[in-house]
TrEMBL record:
This is tRNA (guanine(10)-N(2))-methyltransferase TRMT11. Part of the heterodimeric TRMT11-TRM112 methyltransferase complex; this complex forms an active tRNA methyltransferase, where TRMT112 acts as an activator of the catalytic subunit TRMT11. One of its GO terms (cellular component) is tRNA methyltransferase complex. Catalytic subunit of the TRMT11-TRM112 methyltransferase complex, that specifically mediates the S-adenosyl-L-methionine-dependent N(2)-methylation of guanosine nucleotide at position 10 (m2G10) in tRNAs. This is one of the major tRNA (guanine-N(2))-methyltransferases. It comes from Dracunculus medinensis. Signal peptide: none annotated. InterPro entries: DNA_methylase_N6_adenine_CS, RlmKL-like_Mtase, SAM-dependent_MTases_sf.
Length: 319
C-alpha cells in the first residue's frame, strides 16, 4: 500500500514510524545504483549467532548444527512460547537450544549412549575426554534455558511405539537433522549374530539402517505425533543445489509411507514419461523428491564411485 506523508509530523526523538533509506556504494560493475526506501518493521538478531557460538558452548559434537542455521530452522517451524518441539536425532541438542530460545518447550531422543550421556571422547580440538560439567543439560543451563528443557530419551527414533499415540497428536513441531552416514553412523536397534566373546554388560545391539529408511521413518513419525497444522523441518543431503534445503508442511492425509510406494511411484513416473510432479499427489511428490536426492547422495558417497567423483570434479565429497 502507498504511504501518505500528508499532515504527518516529524519527531526525530520519539517517532512512532521510522523510514530507512539505503544507498549502494559499489560502482565496480555498473554505473547504475540501486536505492532502497521503506518502512522499518524490525531489526535482525545477528547478535544471537555470537551469543550461541559453538566455540564457547560447553558440550558440542561432530555434527552440532551451526547456530545461524539452527535459528533459521527454528523460525521455520514457528517455535514460540507454549509450543512443544521434538528432535528425534538430537545429538548434543543444538537445534533444541535454538527452539528453546524462542520460548518453546523442547525434548529429544538420541540412540548413541555416549552422545546422550556425554561420556567418552570429546569432539573439541585440544580436549581428549568429556568432563562432568559437559552435557546437554549443561548447555541449556549455560544459556539460562533449563526451564524449557524437558530432557533427552536414550531411544531409537525408528521405534514409534515408545510414544503415546492419539488421533490429534501432541507435538507442535519436529525439528531435526538426521544422520547421513558420513560423519555419524546411521543405525537403529537390531540383532547381529552372536560371538563367543560377547559377555558382561552390553548395550542394545545396532543394525544397519538405510538412509532412505531413516527419512521415511521420520515422515511416519511426523504423521503420527504432529498436531493439526504441525510442522516438520529437517535437513537432507542433495548434490542438486536447488534442493539443498527443503521444508515440508504436513497435511493430515500424509499418513505412513513405505519403500514399496516410493518405488512404485518412481516407476510410474519413468514408464509414463512424466517430466514433473504435477500429475502426482502431494504424498507421491514428497517421496519422489526424497528418493531423487537420497539416491544421488548415496551414489556419490559410495566407495566404489570414488574414482568417478574425482573425475567429475567432486573433490570435496570424500566417501
Amino acid at each position: 500500500l502507498a504511504l501518505s506523508f500528508e499532515n504527518s509530523h516529524v519527531n526525530l526523538k520519539n517517532a512512532n514510524i521510522n523510514f530507512i533509506f539505503i544507498e549502494e556504494n559499489d560502482k565496480s560493475f555498473s554505473d547504475e545504483q540501486i536505492f532502497y526506501f521503506g518502512k522499518l518493521i524490525g531489526f535482525g538478531q545477528s547478535h544471537l549467532v555470537q551469543k550461541y557460538n559453538l566455540q564457547e558452548r560447553r558440550y558440542i559434537g561432530n555434527t552440532t548444527m551451526d547456530p545461524a542455521l539452527s535459528f533459521i530452522q527454528a523460525n521455520m517451524v514457528k517455535a514460540n512460547h507454549g509450543s512443544l518441539i521434538l528432535d528425534p536425532f538430537c545429538g548434543t541438542g543444538g537445534l533444541l537450544i535454538a527452539a528453546a530460545h524462542f520460548g518453546a518447550a523442547v525434548m529429544g531422543t538420541e540412540i548413541n549412549y555416549q552422545v546422550a550421556r556425554a561420556v567418552g571422547k570429546s569432539s573439541r580440538m585440544g580436549q581428549k575426554f568429556l568432563t562432568d560439567d559437559q552435557s546437554i543439560a549443561a548447555n541449556f543451563c549455560q544459556y539460562s534455558l533449563n526451564d524449557r528443557f524437558m530432557g533427552v530419551l536414550l531411544a531409537d527414533a525408528s521405534k514409534h511405539e515408545i510414544w503415546h499415540y492419539n488421533n490429534f497428536g501432541f507435538v507442535d513441531a519436529i525439528l531435526t537433522d538426521p544422520p547421513y552416514g558420513v560423519r555419524e553412523k546411521i543405525q537403529k536397534i537390531g540383532k547381529k549374530s552372536r560371538k563367543d566373546h560377547y559377555f558382561g554388560r552390553r548395550y542394545p545391539e545396532k543394525a544397519k539402517y538405510e538412509i532412505s529408511s531413516s527419512f521415511l521413518d521420520l515422515l511416519n513419525l511426523a504423521a503420527r505425533l504432529l498436531v493439526v497444522k504441525g510442522r516438520l523441518a529437517f535437513w537432507f543431503p542433495s548434490i542438486e543445489r536447488e534442493l539443498v534445503f527443503t521444508f515440508f508442511y504436513f497435511p493430515n492425509d500424509l499418513i505412513y509411507f513405505n519403500q514399496s510406494e516410493a518405488i512404485q511411484a518412481r516407476n510410474e513416473n519413468q514408464n509414463n514419461g512424466v517430466k514433473n510432479y504435477k500429475d502426482f499427489t502431494r504424498k507421491q511428490e514428497i517421496i519422489l523428491i526424497l528418493y531423487q536426492c537420497l539416491f544421488s547422495f548415496s551414489f556419490f558417497y559410495s566407495a566404489k564411485n570414488r574414482k568417478f567423483r574425482i573425475l567429475s570434479c567432486y573433490l570435496n565429497m570424500r566417501g
